[in-house]
Amino acid sequence: MVNVLVVGKGGREHALCWKLKQSPRVKRVFCAPGNAGTALEATNVPIEVGDTRSLIQFAKRENIRLTVVGPEDPLMAGIVDAFQKEGLRIFGPRQEAAELEGSKIFAKDLMRQAGIPTADYRVFRAAPDAERYILTRDVSLSVRPRLRSAPRGGAAAVTCRTAAEALEAIDRAFDPREGAGAVEIEGRGQRLVFEQAAEARRYVLDRSLNLVVKADGLAAGKGVVVSHTIGEAMEAIDAFMVRRTLGRAGDRILIEERLDGQEVSILALTDGRTIVPLEPCQDHKRAYDGDEGPNTGGMGAYCPTPIVTPDLMTVIEGEILVPAVHALKRARRAFRGLLYAGLILTNQGPKVLEFNVRFGDPEAQVLLMRLKSDLFEALDAVVEERLDEVQLEWDPRPALTVVMASDGYPGNYERGRAIHGLDDAERIPDVKVFHAGTMLRTDPVTGREMRVVTDGGRVLNVTALGETLRAAKERAYQAVSAIRFQGGWYRRDIGDRAIAAGA
């Protein structure tokens, strides 16, 4: 029997520890740094994910057979390269292959070269250039100044094809030297009068837009803004490239067409030669019910998703997964690990929104809840490049997970709030509560007893199996209702679309 180390401290890592512990080949599981949940399945080690040197020393000291990297940051920083240099076995792609997630621009260029279907895009390295591109969007407006000296008339109307031309005409009209008291804007069946320049400009910036603004680098799920208006796109550019809300992740951005359709998550193990797809999932990225609110790291998921049929899965493998692995190999960036394709199902077929290079979160929770095969054996086979020997077996029952989050997420939130009802939730059959943002804290009253408190934005992944997706949802929300912590909230519609479609 062997020892295994899991690197990370979120819900994905708790699920990995839980599943690896079930392997008959695994003697002991360690997790660095872990959380209150991983402490139930593994031995937590107080080493942060970015401290590669200490992780290597620990792996040598504890005779770790396999290290499994959960989050993307250490992969991008080259943890796999460092471990392999020391002769240590580790699951995950090397740094050069991990750039598939670390740089959206690299991923888009690779897809273009490999003929992988994705949205058209443009790359920008400076905010003014990106803003000019947005302002070239067609608005087809007519701007007519209304002069104070001629209340019944005005100057000649200016026909403006682009947003930039309309904003320029508005600024010119309200120049004190022009004497305009208002402007009349006409377009798309509307004729409106504005007496303030700011109101007129806002009208132009509120014109509809079908573009997505993406920060190039890692941004913890916060680097994508689906822009419904010109103003929203301009605000995203300002946030990423001027105010630097994402730091260096916003050094470059890409702007791409917005695609319509349902999103799905396709994860696959690959050793660079063989690809073994996992069961298809659907995630819920938006914060609030009805897919409203800002993007998050994921508010819930279910598996499998009925909209990915076997025929569609064959298309996804042939047009997306296989070309991606082959393109990386041709680029001398051979990929071994977990390849995650975030797809949107359009009328023209599946297209790639993004690639990730690790288990999704919360997709890992529902996948590992259903996986009947030995996870250690599968990951070990990837590292040894013998994945062709592996066949995965799945529980036929669907799984659904609900994320319980802290008040304020995905923005600022408080930590250290006591969590109650965890044992009650896990007494429900076929329910597992995976901890994401939790920690153990000494009870201030007794000074001895440890209690579980919040330590993140996404706090818990309450996961359940059911004979049907509806049953899995009912069981998961029953467990959610047993758990309490101050400011805790969650979406109430996880899985509803698939259930309404008859899943």
Q: What does this protein structure show overall?
A:
The protein is an alpha+beta fold. Among the domains are: 2-92, Rossmann fold, CATH 3.40.50.20; 138-206, no CATH class; 399-500, Phosphoribosylglycinamide synthetase, C-terminal domain (Glycinamide Ribonucleotide Synthetase, Chain A, domain 4, Alpha-Beta Complex). The protein is built from 17 helices and 26 strands. The strands form 7 sheets. The chain has a 5-stranded parallel β-sheet with strand order 3-2-1-4-5, sandwiched between helices. β17 (286-288) and β18 form a beta hairpin. α1 packs parallel to α13 (363-370) and α9 (163-173) runs antiparallel to α10 (197-205). The radius of gyration is 26 Å and the shape is globular.
Give descriptors for this structure:
Rossmann fold, 503 residues, Glycinamide Ribonucleotide Synthetase, Chain A, domain 4, alpha+beta, 5-stranded antiparallel sheet, 5-stranded parallel sheet, single chain
